[in-house]
Amino acid sequence: MSTGGLLRVVEHFHSIQGEGVHMGLSAVFLRLAGCSVGCPWCDTKESWPAHGHPLVPVERLVDTVRQARPALVVITGGEPLQQDLTSLCQALAPLAIPRHLETSGVAPLSGAFEWITLSPKRHHPPQPALLARCHELKVVIHEPADLDFAMAMATTCQNMCAASPGPQLCVQPGAGSATGAHLAIRHVKQYPQWRLSLQTHKWLGVR
């Protein structure tokens, strides 16, 4: 899907990481185009079609990060691994800014990252390699079956992960889902190894 030093890009901007383990840190987001997962609750459906978005030189993305000097750079989507991230990660490496990947895990891993957030989906489970490599497991919760899926994914991650104690575990209520919020809070109270992730950037009105 990418062409040499070009990537299909939806947007790139400097904001804060609004969710997950690194919530609150300054971050440049590189939102790449293309996603075949098709989650019905997705809040960035404009990212699904790859070819509706421009090919952007990798160096332009690196310049955005260089000028912002954030705490981390987040490569997200869409599903970013549907493009080859090798050249982007190589170009970002000299900046010595931690590279974070947010992925559903449905495509092969490319590029090198200091942190991988895996957000697996019940209807399109991740590849085993991503379960073994992730640092953070973040599951979106809408209904009880999502909690069962989260527990199963956590068990698989912990069994496959070479490093102890395995990934950080997060449940995140689906946007606007009162049921998801209730279930996620109850889950965290019952299982203290899990934490609640919230989309705080939406509360703050920032991207």
TrEMBL record:
Binding-site residues for S-adenosyl-L-methionine, renumbered to this chain: W41, C42, D43, G78, S119, P120, K121
Residues that, per the record, bind substrate: I16, Q17, G18, R31, T76
Cofactor note: Binds 1 [4Fe-4S] cluster. The cluster is coordinated with 3 cysteines and an exchangeable S-adenosyl-L-methionine. Binds 1 S-adenosyl-L-methionine per subunit.
GO biological process: tRNA queuosine(34) biosynthetic process
Domain Radical SAM core: 22-207
Any one Pfam family match given in the protein's UniProt record, by short name: Fer4_12
Catalytically driven reaction(s): 6-carboxy-5,6,7,8-tetrahydropterin + H(+) = 7-carboxy-7-carbaguanine + NH4(+)
InterPro entries linked to this entry: 7-CO-7-deazaguanine_synth-like (IPR024924), Aldolase_TIM (IPR013785), rSAM (IPR007197), rSAM_sf (IPR058240)
Top-level enzyme category: lyase
Chain sites annotated for binding [4Fe-4S] cluster: C35, C39, C42
GO molecular function: 4 iron, 4 sulfur cluster binding; carbon-nitrogen lyase activity; magnesium ion binding; S-adenosyl-L-methionine binding
EC code: 4.3.99.3
Keywords: 4Fe-4S, Iron, Iron-sulfur, Lyase, Magnesium, Metal-binding, Queuosine biosynthesis, S-adenosyl-L-methionine
UniProt binding sites for Mg(2+): T44
Domain of life of the source: Bacteria
Involved pathway(s): Purine metabolism; 7-cyano-7-deazaguanine biosynthesis
Cofactor annotation: Mg(2+); [4Fe-4S] cluster; S-adenosyl-L-methionine
UniProt family annotation: Belongs to the radical SAM superfamily. 7-carboxy-7-deazaguanine synthase family.
Function statement: Catalyzes the complex heterocyclic radical-mediated conversion of 6-carboxy-5,6,7,8-tetrahydropterin (CPH4) to 7-carboxy-7-deazaguanine (CDG), a step common to the biosynthetic pathways of all 7-deazapurine-containing compounds.
Cross-referenced PANTHER family: 7-CARBOXY-7-DEAZAGUANINE SYNTHASE (PTHR42836)
Assembly: Homodimer.
Protein's name according to its UniProt entry: 7-carboxy-7-deazaguanine synthase
Organism (species): Candidatus Synechococcus spongiarum LMB bulk15M
